[in-house]
Design a protein that fits this description.
The chain has one domain: Pyruvate-ferredoxin oxidoreductase, PFOR, domain III (Pyruvate-ferredoxin Oxidoreductase, domain 3, 3-Layer(aba) Sandwich). Helix content is about 40%, strand content about 20%. It is built from 8 helices and 6 strands, in the order βαβββαββαααααα. It has a 6-stranded mixed sheet with strand order 2-3-1-4-5-6, with helices on both faces.
């Protein structure tokens, strides 16, 4: 079993930081991780992508880029969705920022796709610049397999894999450690607040309301 996370946005949204924090946190949970980035050379507005693949510590990752069927597709800009909607699989969990992704059109029947106020929540915390960490917190709860809808969906769709889900669990404490160590000192406090807000938002969301 493996979890493949693709994060797509534009320059200036902190996409690469999300990938770095996710990979570092999974590594601290004693998991094997591959991280890859792709970005256009423009400072802001250009497409920016981070791919993170997570597997149990005794498995090998042969290729770091995610070209099809990600487990989670996190989209922070319309450009990201337009570029990568074609790689979505039936069981991909799609997370999109409601302010920056206005069109989330899908031709296929899809189990879990919805928009979340990542940007709006960041503004409530004082700066839209922490939208990426709010989104990371939301995604982190999905990797804490204590009865959330990811594990429920795994059990329903892939019963042979559901028993292995806890092998890929990344506890929130690992994310907080990574944020403290990798954030500039002046952003540590607000980044931790943003992470906790996103995590709590994910815990309080009933996915069935969004199907």
């Amino acid at each position: 079993m493996r979890i493949k996370v693709k994060i797509a946005g534009v320059g200036g949204q902190g996409v690469q930081l999300i990938g770095k924090l996710l990979a570092e946190s999974a590594f601290r949970a004693n998991l094997n991780v591959a991280q890859a980035v792709k970005y256009e050379p423009s400072t802001s507005g250009g497409l920016t992508v981070a791919d993170v693949t997570i597997v149990p510590e005794d498995e090998i990752i042969g290729y770091p880029y995610i070209e099809a069927n990600p487990s989670i597709l996190l989209v922070l800009a319309q450009r990201g969705w337009d570029e990568y909607k074609h790689i979505v699989g039936e069981n991909t969990v799609i997370l999109a920022d409601e302010s920056n992704v206005k069109s989330l059109y899908l031709k296929m029947k899809h189990k879990a796709h919805y928009t979340i106020p990542f940007g709006k929540t960041a503004i409530e915390l004082g700066t839209e610049k922490v939208m990426n960490v709010v989104a990371l917190g939301f995604m982190a709860e999905l990797l804490d397999f204590k009865g959330n809808y990811i594990s429920d969906n795994l059990e329903e769709m892939h019963p042979h894999d559901s028993g292995d889900s806890t092998l890929l669990e990344v506890a929130p404490e690992k994310f907080e450690e990574s944020i403290i160590d990798l954030s500039p000192q002046k952003f540590r406090e607000v980044n931790i607040s943003a992470f906790k807000r996103g995590y709590d938002m994910s815990m309080s969301l009933d996915i069935k309301d969004h199907l």
